[in-house]
């Protein structure tokens, strides 16, 4: 695979010039079928759409006009906020069939502005054609009439699209390659082992997205969400939350960070079923777990630490000795089998979890550097 580097990031080929040609031919035929000889006005939104627009109109069989516009934004008054206006619309569009040509629609914010601007222009008909569409990122419900290709919510570059202004001239589309440069780690250990404390340092040092399932549950409980209500009774007793709930939640968190340079999973997986689901899910995205860092400490030390933490954390499951003990029972029964699971994959790295926070960070960093070098 021919990888390219733009600024500090690596990209891999995603959509070939040949595929782009086919998409353009199909879209042009679809639009022609609807508008035929009505001499539509194609309005291409610069900068990203310049290549798409050029190739699209090359395929359009009928007579047409083409106008290139730019969205410019300026600070309006306090009540209007940012104001967008269209500059460069050369054709008169009143009474005409207008088709907007966009390179990509993601959140839909630009599309919303375009709809607003064209509302008063007395056009005969108004359509949107976009080469790429990110359904996972789209937050509006404006109609999109023609879609070249729906794509996942990942960063792409080339064929008019840029990464900090570079890459627009590439004749094909590339996507950010996170699978070769990314490092995904599991921070593993019994309750109180110091996973959360260490994660706070490691995520910054290695530029990782930290996902703590315990933190997400606590956030949801505090905000009284549906998920929070579902998880609360389990957590308060020191039981594990059911796998289906936790696995789905975790997948959603990963999906929210399509451009992450790596993930630090903290408190997940906690069962074999979760570990298997994680492996399958990551593999479906061309990703994998690179290593598991296990913070090791004796139960007596850990129980003491949790009791101390309970005095300040306010966590219901840190307060009561019975609940704390139950978390260790849950760990021994359901989580401990993961040690063998990751050892069998050659991914288990034990780290002594007794010492100062700094000492343990140093030990973990050594293990991570070794994992990254493998
Ligand atoms: P933690 O903050 O990681 O100690 O998690 C606190 C509590 O959240 C646990 O005792 C469980 O009840 C619940 N929890 C966190 N992560 C998971 C998980 N991966 N599977 C099931 N329950 C979890």
UniProtKB/TrEMBL annotation:
SUPFAM superfamilies: P-loop containing nucleoside triphosphate hydrolases, PRTase-like. Catalyzes the reversible transfer of the terminal phosphate group between ATP and AMP. Plays an important role in cellular energy homeostasis and in adenine nucleotide metabolism. One of its GO terms (cellular component) is cytoplasm. ATP binds at residues 192-197, 309, 355. This is Adenylate kinase. Pfam families: ADK, Pribosyltran. It is found in: Cytoplasm. One of its GO terms (molecular function) is ATP binding. Keywords: ATP-binding, Cytoplasm, Kinase, Nucleotide biosynthesis, Nucleotide-binding, Transferase. InterPro entries: Adenylat/UMP-CMP_kin (IPR000850), Adenylat_kinase_CS (IPR033690), P-loop_NTPase (IPR027417), PRTase-like (IPR029057), PRTase_dom (IPR000836). Monomer. It catalyses: AMP + ATP = 2 ADP. Its EC number is 2.7.4.3. Residues 212-241 are annotated as: NMP. Consists of three domains, a large central CORE domain and two small peripheral domains, NMPbind and LID, which undergo movements during catalysis. The LID domain closes over the site of phosphoryl transfer upon ATP binding. Assembling and dissambling the active center during each catalytic cycle provides an effective means to prevent ATP hydrolysis. It is an enzyme of class 2 (transferase).
